[in-house]
């Protein structure tokens, strides 16, 4: 059993199983592969259990980052970032019959464009039950980090169209450039609906370090257009968050803090849903 305070993890992602009374925690754990932990209280964790290990000859040999696991049509799908020497970083999709895995290849290589440096793909199902992946086109390649969306096949085994640019990181009033003055980062998108609105939580760097902000789709569609809140949801050197329902059916926010390795830990903070829109007051730990 590992306490939350002793579990080093970045980019935490929680899947809740109400029937089992169990939480599954995924994240970046600096392995060639992905692990999962289980808990009944978000404070004490069992594991790690190997959720995915690459077989010999698998294309990716580094940067195993930010796995998310979504339940979709009775199966579990992992969206994860991977890279190899001579290959662009991208998001690949894996599938399993259980949250513990083992996860097997679903997509044939990355779903993101093969000549783009990309990361942090997340699944979004629109109002017509059409699957999309929202992902980041990295600042390393485009300087002003891009948030993009690409339609997926119903079986989630690949794209069903071309990517669309949703917005650039510099469009958010709270986002600050890195040292060069022209490099803005997009990280960790997470989409959800609240008060009839489609919102996106995502990370970049703000005045006080790594941060989480909110953007809102004017049309209610994943294709936007998107506007950006003036203030951060959290702005004090923590980020890459997502929202989940706990076992008491209350909304929770998780993200890692601080952003410095090897000190990063997952935090779990109750949220109150305001009507008609999500509260954007800064969260104090």
Written description of the protein model:
With 285 residues, the protein is mostly beta strands. The protein has a domain at 83-270: Glycosyl hydrolase domain, family 43 (Tachylectin-2, Chain A, 5 Propeller). It is 1% helix and 49% strand. The longest helix has 4 residues, at 139-142. It is globular. 42% of the residues are buried. Residues 273-285 have low confidence and may be disordered. This is Glycoside hydrolase. Keywords: Glycosidase, Hydrolase. InterPro entries: GH43_arabinanases, Glyco_hydro_43, Glyco_hydro_beta-prop_sf. It holds the Pfam family Glyco_hydro_43.
Strand order of the largest sheet: 1-5-4-3-2
* The CATH homology group name of the domain at 83-270: Glycosyl hydrolase domain, family 43
Counting DSSP E segments of at least 2 residues, the number of strands comes to 20
Task: Kindly name the structural category.
Answer: mainly beta
Shape: globular
- What is the percentage of strand-forming residues? over 45%
Helix content: under 10%
Order of helices and strands: EEEEEEEEEEEHEEEEEEEEE
The CATH class of the domain at 83-270 turns out to be Mainly Beta
Compile the SSE list and pairings.
Elements (H helix, E strand, L loop, with lengths): L1 E2 L6 E8 L4 E7 L5 E6 L4 E9 L9 E11 L2 E10 L2 E10 L7 E2 L12 E8 L5 E7 L1 H4 L3 E6 L12 E5 L18 E8 L2 E10 L2 E9 L8 E3 L10 E7 L5 E7 L7 E6 L15
Antiparallel strand pairs: 1-5, 2-3, 3-4, 4-5, 6-7, 7-8, 8-9, 10-11, 11-12, 12-13, 14-15, 15-16, 16-17, 18-19, 19-20
GO molecular function, one term: hydrolase activity, hydrolyzing O-glycosyl compounds
Organism: Paenibacillus hemerocallicola
Family: Belongs to the glycosyl hydrolase 43 family.
